[in-house]
Model the fold of this input.
Amino acid sequence: MREFVEYIAKELVDNPDAVQVAEELRDDKLVFILKVHEKDVGKIIGKKGRTATAIRVLLSAVAAKHGKRGILEVAG
Done:
């Protein structure tokens, strides 16, 4: 799942080398913390948060397939 989030983020941003994904376990949920270059935060969030919401939906689907719960946090 971590590789999945990283792949999507790298395809969306202008600085793919700056993309980092950290993974934490909180209350039986996998939390993925996505860090990108400051200039690329807007591309990850999108207009009215639509891009971030779409990534979260995809992450939830992949996590559910593995019987887990996935959450995405975006950090600049």
Helices lie at 2-12, 41-45, 50-65. The CA atoms of residues 42 and 49 lie 9 Å apart. The chain has one domain: 2-75. Residues 2-75 form a domain with the GMP Synthetase; Chain A, domain 3 fold (CATH 3.30.300.20).
